[in-house]
Amino acid sequence: MFTRILIANRGEIAVRIIRAARELGIETVAVHSTADATSRHVKLADRAICIGGPPAAESYLNIPHIISAAEVANVDAIHPGYGFLAENAHFAEVCRSCNIEFIGPSVESMALLGDKIKCKETAAKAKVPMFPGSKGAVEDEAEAVKVARRIGYPVIIKAAAGGGGRGMRIAHNDLGLRSAIHSARAEAEAAFGNGSVFIEKFLESARHVEVQILGDQHGNVVHLFERDCSMQRRHQKLIEEAPCPVLDEQTRHDLCASAVRLAKAAGYFSAGTVEFLLDKKKDFYLLEVNTRVQVEHPVTEAITGVDIVKTQIRVAAGEKLGFTQKDIHLAGHAMEVRINAEDPERRFAPCPGTIEHFDIPGGPGVRLDTHCYGGYRVPPNYDSMIAKLIVHQPTRKLVIATMRRALAEFTIAPIKTTIPLHQQLMTNGDFIKADVDIHFVERLLAERAEG
Q1: DSSP assignment, residue 133?
Q2: Can you tell me whether residue 27 is helix, strand or coil?
Q3: CA pair distance 258, 276, nearest whole angstrom
Q4: Comparing C-alpha atoms, which of 442, 103, 438 is closest to residue 287?
Q5: Is 292 a catalytic residue?
Q6: End residue of a domain, out of 86, 103, 120
Q7: What's the CATH number where 84 sits?
């Protein structure tokens, strides 16, 4: 087991990793920008090192600075968390070339699954269901139109690299497709340095369902069942729950088995997530693979009792999983809401600033992951998520009741947050019935704006 690890991240995920490491008896080193000098992860770590200014390019994305900090602190390994460099195969390669273990998958599997075109090729060999579309990158307008006419409109253009909705466009006809190809390519090139795009059939109505996988370096791979992440806005998740409330047991088995086959085909180890879209007939299609721990991992931890972050660390140290698929069982229902420092009444404008009042909820079945506290200043330089509120209860109905109560107890002031939005969603009839899709929140917000 490692003696000391560095956390190449910030915010609540850095706090989460520090806590897991401490319970394993591992010393922790936090890196931080000048804007994060007072963040909770800096206070909790055994040692903290400033690696640059507020812009992420000067700090959390600065590989030489992070490696220098790791060498100065004499760490055995680096945990990248999520975001920033977590899915950067080059960073993983640099870490290992410096004899510092990267707490994540191999460089080869990261590169394979991180490129959506190569991922689709691997998935095809593993017989994982996929949308009809182009076999590889689309080179020109004529080829794009030919593919779209073959599979039928609407279609979606996607960047081969990256994610978060960038390099993604929807087209409903030839004219729209020709324009979308160029704009998607340009955005992908600017965002990821790779302008390759491909085309798939677009579902007008779908649920976003993903499978949590864990693998070790001895060839063992298991799934920890699925999460439903359909409640999202502009491809950013707002609410996640596990298990998916509309899946029957056979579909759940098939979905999870597909994820495991893909992971094994890619020689995958560590924590990862295989994402799918589910249509109204309960048919599912591969979306992408995230080769890292997910923001929403706590809901899976709640329903399975498996500590995903500790397992990541153990696997990186060469240990076996220590459990098999037969040892993993579903227990109850869990839900997570992301609390962002944004104003829903002003089109979700970011609301950085000092938190004067930070009164947190508690009670049975309630967990809060956060790096904030009363007096903490939310910087304007990073993602606006400041907390994750997680509830676990025997049934979904009880989860929603507890979540309402917990949200009512949660006070963050004077900055604006998305707590009021979540309170409204928890009383929405369609959400309570689990009758939603990935466009549900945006439709709801559009209707409210018109009203």
Answers
A1: B
A2: strand
A3: 10
A4: 438
A5: yes
A6: 103
A7: 3.40.50.20
Token pair 């809901």: residue = 299
In this prediction, residue 136 has a pLDDT band, given cuts at 50, 70 and 90, of confident
Confidence at residue 165, expressed as pLDDT on a 0 to 100 scale? 75
Helix (H) or strand (E) segment spanning residue 210: strand 207-215
Whether residue 227 sits in one domain with residue 197: no
Domain that holds residue 157: 132-201
Residues 276 and 413 placed together within one structural domain of the fold: yes
pTM: 0.94
Alpha-carbon distance of 357 to 376, in angstroms, equals 10
The answer to whether 92 and 270 have CB atoms below 8 angstroms apart is no
Could you tell me how many residues make up the chain? 451
Residues 48 and 175 in one domain: no
pLDDT higher than threshold 90 for residue 234: no
Q: 278 exposed, middle or buried (CB, 10 Å; 0-12, 13-18, 19+)?
A: buried
Do 331 and 410 fall within a single domain? yes
Q: What is the mean pLDDT of residues 221-242?
A: 96
pLDDT of residue 236: 92
Nearest to 261 by CA among 211, 329, 187: 211
pLDDT confidence of residue 192: 82
Answer whether 49's CB lies under 8 Å from 69's CB.
Answer: yes
32 membership: H or E segment, kind and range: strand 27-33
**Which pLDDT value is given to residue 204?**
84
Last residue of a domain, one of 57, 85, 103: 103
Q: Point out the catalytic residue in the list 10, 16, 292, 314.
A: 292
